[in-house]
Amino acid sequence: MNILISGGTGFVGYHLIKCLVNKGHLITCIIRPNSKTETLKAFDVQYISTEEIINKQIDFSQFDIVYHLASIRHKWGTSWNEYIRSGQEYTEMLLKSSVSKIAQFIFCSSVAVYGYSEELPISEETERKPYNLYGKMKLECENLVTSYNEKYGLPYTILRPSIVYGENDQQGMMTRLIKMIHNNSYHTVGGGRNRIQCIYIEDFINILEKIGTNFHPTNDGFIVSYKYPITINNLVKLIRNELQKKVILDIKIPEWFARFIAIIIEKIYQKGVKLTGPEPIIAQEKVDTMVKDVIYDISKIEKEYDFKPIFSYEHGINRLVHNLAQENKWKV
């Protein structure tokens, strides 16, 4: 198949391109002026620019499917205008070019569109109420995708992954957590009994590839995650075991205190004082991630695509820890 990918230089994009190239597909990657393509040099990939698409120099009828993965990552301090440029505007550019040309438009959204629902587990039937600008941006993009289906018949599938983790994700939540635990700088906020739900990169790539190359579009959206959640305490214990790190001082920070400090640090950052780098070491959204209880129901994608994740938390964490150990020359 001839496949067009946006966001190919990112974490998910890199792994998807690797998978698709190995299966013999022809890949074209959209790049922006500041895109870094070094990681893709090992693959036979064609490139086109966003300017060529804007100027209508690219005929999308040559492509069978479009994977739209490109998006600004969730990062503290990102303005709504930045999210619009990398989200809605970019998405609509691709949608306009795809109408009546391709067999399927696959959009990578996020479970962030649901926010933190009080009714668990969260399923596709849960009301979408984003809790931050990133989730709001993803929801706006989803609405654009569905509107192009309603107006122009553009076939689509929307995937909403939970936390995706794995190799080559330098800024991901799991990578940062492992590094903090290795450096003995991690402290649990709250009791650590709340749950999160993740998915290892290879499992997410497998379903992405499968939906694009083996199935007709459903014109629907799906949550993609492991079947079961894991508590923060058990996740930290698992990482410590892999790192062979004993607990030196198990300090648990009360949630109220963490939020109090987060508010103060965020106000300092808003005044332009960068205390701990480009973003606060602690922020209210980061506190939410560490204390909110989240469970996702993946029965819909299990039924539709026979989705069965292969990697357990133990297997995935083992792979990532040993990859990071090799990169950073840790002894584990």
Account of the protein in words:
The protein is of the alpha/beta class and 332 residues long. It has a domain at 2-170 and 197-228 and 294-312: Rossmann fold (3-Layer(aba) Sandwich), CATH 3.40.50.720. It contains eleven helices and 13 strands. The protein has helices at 11-22, 50-54, 80-98, 133-152, 173-182, 201-214, 232-243, 255-270, 284-291, 299-305, 313-328; strands spanning 2-6, 26-31, 45-49, 65-68, 104-108, 156-161, 163-165, 188-189, 195-196, 198-200, 220-224, 230-231, 252-253. The chain has a seven-stranded parallel sheet with strand order 3-2-1-4-5-6-11, with helices on both faces. Helix 3 (80-98) links the parallel strand 4 (65-68) and strand 5. Helix 1 packs across helix 6 (201-214), helix 5 (173-182) crosses helix 7 and helix 7 (232-243) packs across helix 11 (313-328). 36% of the residues are buried.
